[in-house]
Specification:
Elements: E1 5-8, H1 18-29, H2 38-44, H3 49-57, H4 63-84, H5 92-101, E2 105-109, H6 114-124, E3 132-134, H7 147-156, E4 163-167, H8 170-178, E5 182-186, E6 197-199, H9 209-213
Parallel strand pairs: 1-2, 1-4, 2-3, 4-5, 5-6
Helix pairs in contact: 1-4, 3-4, 4-6
C-alpha cells in the first residue's frame, strides 16, 4: 500500500488560537496607529504576516518594519500560549491517535512561524505523533498557493494523491485542492468551504472519512 498522510492546518483547525492572535496583534498595532477591528482580523486570519501587514499598513511598509512588527507579535502570542495554555479542538486528539495507529503519516502545514508551530507541538505534547511540520519560513508563497502542502508532503515522502488536508479557511482549502489533494473543511464556516468533505467538527464525519476520501 502506498504511504498515506494527513496534513493539518494549525490555527483554527488543531487549536482555537484566534483570541491569542487577536490580542497579540492589537497590542503591537495600537502603538503604530492601527486600531485593529474584528473584521480586519477575521478577514486576514491564517495568512502570512507580510501579507497581513501590507493590507493593514499599506503596500509601502518596509521589510524591516514587517520583520519588527511580526517578531513582536509572535513573541507575544507565544507568551500567551505559555501563560494560559491551549487545548486541541474537539475530536482532534482521537483522530490523530486513530490515524497514527492505522499507519498514516501526519504533518502540520501552517502559515505561522516555525517557532509558533514548535510552541504548539510542545504545549500539546504532539512530538510523538506529528512526523513533520512546515512553517512560514519554509515557503515563498502563502495559502492559497499550494506550496505549504506540497512541501509537507515532500517531507513525509507521500505523493499528493495520497494526502488529505484538514483546513478551516477558504485559502487553505483552495491550497489543498490546488496541490492535488483531498480536503476536509472544518469549523464554523464549513458550509462555505469548497472542500471534498465539510463539517463543523471531525466528530460529525464518518469514522472512515479519511480512508474513503482516498478511494473515490
Amino acid at each position: 500500500m502506498n504511504p498515506r498522510a494527513v496534513l493539518w492546518d494549525m490555527d483554527g483547525t488543531l487549536v482555537d488560537s484566534a483570541d491569542y492572535h487577536s490580542e497579540a496583534w492589537r497590542e503591537v498595532m495600537i502603538p503604530r496607529g492601527v486600531d485593529l477591528t474584528d473584521e480586519m482580523f477575521r478577514s486576514t486570519f491564517g495568512q502570512r504576516n507580510d501579507t497581513i501587514l501590507r493590507i493593514w499598513c499599506g503596500p509601502d511598509i518596509s521589510d524591516a518594519d514587517i520583520q519588527e512588527i511580526s517578531d513582536a507579535k509572535e513573541a507575544r502570542y507565544r507568551e500567551l500560549v505559555a501563560e494560559r495554555g491551549i487545548v486541541l479542538l474537539p475530536g482532534i486528539a482521537r483522530r490523530i491517535a486513530q490515524l497514527r495507529h492505522a499507519g498514516w503519516r501526519q504533518a502540520i502545514a501552517s502559515a505561522a512561524p516555525r517557532a509558533n508551530v514548535e510552541a504548539i507541538i510542545a504545549a500539546l505534547d504532539l512530538a510523538s505523533v506529528i512526523d513533520a511540520f512546515v512553517g512560514a519560513e519554509d515557503v515563498v508563497h502563502g495559502k492559497p498557493d499550494p506550496e505549504v502542502f506540497c512541501r509537507a508532503a515532500e517531507r513525509l515522502e507521500v505523493a499528493p494523491a495520497y494526502c488529505v488536508v484538514v483546513e478551516d479557511a477558504p485559502a487553505g482549502v483552495e491550497a489543498g485542492l490546488r496541490a492535488g489533494m483531498r480536503v476536509i473543511g472544518v469549523g464554523i464556516n464549513h458550509l462555505k468551504l469548497p472542500a471534498n468533505q465539510a463539517a463543523f467538527s471531525l466528530d460529525d464525519l464518518p469514522e472512515d472519512v479519511f480512508d474513503s476520501l482516498l478511494t473515490r
